[in-house]
TrEMBL record:
Record's protein name: SET domain-containing protein
Domain named SET: residues: 105-298
Species this chain originates from: Cuscuta epithymum
Length: 308
């Protein structure tokens, strides 16, 4: 899948309205200094060393009412309260995965009998990230083993948290199939982006819908993106970009994608709730009508000192 522009675009033009995330989670280091719903910085930050591990903070009653129930229903609370800190030094990707998994289950986007190469139109790359074939390059093999073990360990922690939420026996979670948890964690590792504040520092991670996730990455991009924590209504697309299937889309995964229906549906996820760090895509070059939109994970419109 790829995204193309529908008209000639001048440099420096916003190509989308603010895009709300499907799900987002602060880094552990930011949970006590930023709002867990909108990611806005908080004026008074308690000492993170004395705060409970499962503690989340919000900037307003509205943000608390929007997000706190998901904190419990997704089992994020249980993961933070019972996770073994030495083996899980950073939990943001796991917490984001739990939030997404809860949403996917609520919307019935998959079942445990489903093929898990694509969920809700987003690729998981599970087979690639967990492949067991021996690599010819020993260094590459070790890297794959490290990533695979991280995914499996994280999936087990997610499964244990979900069983705690449901009041089930924890011991059986070690032996149960964690394929769903693995798939959603792989989806996060494949599609999530680092959410940056105004200074360019990463404060969390988020997964956005196809209006962003279907844009391909390139070392020669023609667009970039920036974040905003200002409340957004999640307005409809301005229509400047549109999805286009690639030759491999009909063969890639067992979930057949109806481009127009999937794009409209997935782009609406998260909009009703109306919270989270929004993302705006902007052109950094003149782009001709019909040209593919390409991004890089570094904001090229940031000052050079920020880009590092």
């Amino acid at each position: 899948m790829e995204m193309r522009v529908v008209e000639d675009i001048a440099i420096g033009r916003n190509l989308t309205p603010p895009i709300l995330p499907i799900a987002a989670a602060l880094h552990d280091s930011s949970r006590f200094s930023h709002c867990s719903a909108c990611f806005s910085p908080l004026h008074d930050s308690p000492d993170s060393q004395s705060a409970p591990l499962h503690f989340l903070r919000y900037c307003s009653r509205r943000c608390s009412s929007l997000d706190s129930s998901l904190h419990f229903s997704s089992a994020e609370f249980h993961l933070l309260r019972h996770s073994p800190a030495p083996t899980l030094p950073e939990t943001s990707d796991l917490r984001l995965s739990l939030r997404l998994l809860h949403l996917f289950e609520t919307l019935r986007l998959f079942s445990r009998d489903s093929a898990l190469d694509r969920i809700g139109g987003l690729m998981t790359n599970r087979a690639e990230l967990l492949r067991k074939e021996i690599q010819e390059d020993m260094e590459t093999c070790e890297e794959y083993e490290e990533v695979s073990e991280r995914i499996r360990e994280g999936a087990r922690a997610m499964a244990a948290a979900r069983r705690m939420r449901d009041g089930l026996n924890l011991e059986s979670s070690l032996a149960e199939d964690c394929a769903v948890e693995e798939a959603v964690l792989c989806l996060v590792l494949t599609n999530a982006v680092e959410v940056q504040d105004r200074t360019g520092c990463s404060v969390g991670v988020a997964v956005y819908g196809p209006r962003f996730s279907w844009i391909n990455h390139s070392c020669s991009p023609n667009s970039s993106y920036w974040f905003s924590t200002v409340p957004s209504s999640g307005a409809a697309s301005s229509g400047l970009i549109h999805p286009k299937p690639t030759d491999g889309d009909n063969r890639n995964g067992s979930e057949l994608i109806n481009t127009k229906i999937s794009f409209k549906f997935l782009s609406s996820l998260g909009i009703e709730e109306g919270y989270g760090p929004s993302l705006i895509i902007r052109s950094i070059k003149n782009i001709k009508q019909g040209e593919e939109l390409l991004i890089t994970y570094t904001d090229l419109l940031q000052p050079k000192v920020v880009r590092g």
